Amino acid sequence: MDDEMDKETISDDKQAEAEAALQKKHLSMLERLSKRQQTRSINIEPSTESTSSFLSRFTQLKSSIESRLSESQSISSDPSQLKPHFDKISESISDLEKFVAQSSYFLPSYDVRSSLKTVSDLKRSLENLSSELIPKKKFSFKNKVSKKDSDSVIPESKQPIVPVRDSVQSSESFAARDSPGFRNKFGEVLVGEFSETEVGEFTVSDLDSCEVRIIGCVRALFVHRLKDCRVYVGPVTGSVLIDEVEGCVFAMASHQIRIHRARRSDFYLKVRSRPIVEDCSGMRFAPYCLSYRGIEEDLSCAGLDAETGNWANVDDFRWLRAVQSPNWSILPENERVGTVDISNADSRMEEI
Amino acid sequence: MGLLKIIRKIKRKEKEMRILMVGLDNSGKTTIVLKINGEDTSVISPTLGFNIKTLAYQKYTLNIWDVGGQKTIRSYWRNYFEQTDGLVWVVDSSDLRRLDDCKMELDNLLKEERLSGSSLLILANKQDIKGALSPTEIAKVLNLEAMDKSRHWMIVGCSAYTGEGLLEGFDWLVQDIASRIYMLD
Ligand SMILES: Nc1nc2c(ncn2[C@@H]2O[C@H](COP(=O)(O)OP(=O)(O)OP(=O)(O)O)[C@@H](O)[C@H]2O)c(=O)[nH]1
Ligand SMILES: [Mg+2]
User: Fold this and answer.
1) Within the 79-138 window of chain B, which residues sit less than 8 Å (CB to CB) from chain A?
2) Which of A85, A302, B19, B114 shows the greatest Cβ crowding within 10 Å of its Cβ?
3) Which fold has domain A179-341?
């Protein structure tokens, strides 16, 4: 993509200098990022100098927070001191988190991740200590709030306590409305045929040990919470969104495929753009292997007839580096299933 | 703040507007920007960092920042808040399951002081999909009526596929920004 920003013409008055400096800073950040975007997985090695200076500062801040945490017990003899004590620590943790975020541009993603992990561990220790040392009833809302916002950026103690929504319409009432899909099944073969008429969005959720077959085109496919399932789908003209799956096999063709929180699963894909994964592990990828009567027509209608080879160009948002992500691999050819034909809806589930 | 005034001054001269597009991943931000710009939308990968498009719109120059919405990179959004004239929040109206996430992220964004002066356009995208919620329903879920009274906002249903609604939305946004910044012209 031709990402570029026209340099602004800068007027010559003095004040504009400040603007220019700002602009320059911005441009260089921009350049850095767009380079990353263009080169995608090509790693721009950050200078080790800045990484190590980050790490030493980070370690320093971390141990200061830890030592203040360990003082809590002795302070607890004076309960009036405890609250301010915890508030201050919480502030420091939040600063530490900001520091990580600011440094995340040049840090290798491993360091970003481990630093953020440290931050969330510190938050948890603080939370545990404060619920342990501060009389319960006063802070009874604590658990409720912290559960919901466990990975929120704002430290718990700073979360404003909002009353339960009253006039707000919950999205659950909409989720319950009849959108086409297969939900809440165990050990079944679920077949959907959408010849001619293209359905809109289709949802496949909360299935255990099922086989799903979707013949024909859909616009958008949502897959959520599957365990030990096989999911075979014809062309999706928009995107497939997969979240929380484990031990599954997928064969799907789509313009975009986005996979979150998947574990131990195989994906046979045909995809126009690069598939992306986030918070996944044990994933294996192979080319699309599905067949049914008329699939060729459906694929070409959906603009998915050409093989792009993108099934192997997976971007891992948790691992944007040149080195192969540990979270996914190419499925070895001798372990791939052959062509899976789902033309006959009555055919038994074949063993894989 | 002095600096802001200077920036406004420069912008006024160039009739430039800075627009920040955010929203959950998969909501259609990149598709919308390319569609508005008349570009091919048939192959779009999820955005790893961000894209910038500079385009002429009416008599203005829009600098549109399209920032990736995947969870991992949402924390970077804040790096783009500075000097934002218009905020476009894009919603996938067919993704019922993640509407709560969507509301939470929007609420967080609106707490941001650096964005307090910007006009807010909410695009209820993917209206072409059967089963998508209407803009009115989306407004209810997001509880838009409860928004701070000083905020200029508008919700429009649209489809990046058909292009429907996009111009209506951007027309409002550009007019609203213009009436605030370029009042004097
Ligand atoms: N049916 C339909 N699909 C759409 C529409 N807009 C976008 N899409 C599809 O939705 C998917 C996501 O679109 P993108 O533009 O990549 O979404 P994004 O918001 O930029 O996503 P990130 O870059 O990850 O933040 C793509 O498969 C698009 O084809 C629309 O109006 N209707
Ligand atoms: Mg994008």
Assistant:
1) 79, 94-97, 99-100, 103, 126, 128-133, 137
2) B19
3) Pectate Lyase C-like (2.160.20)
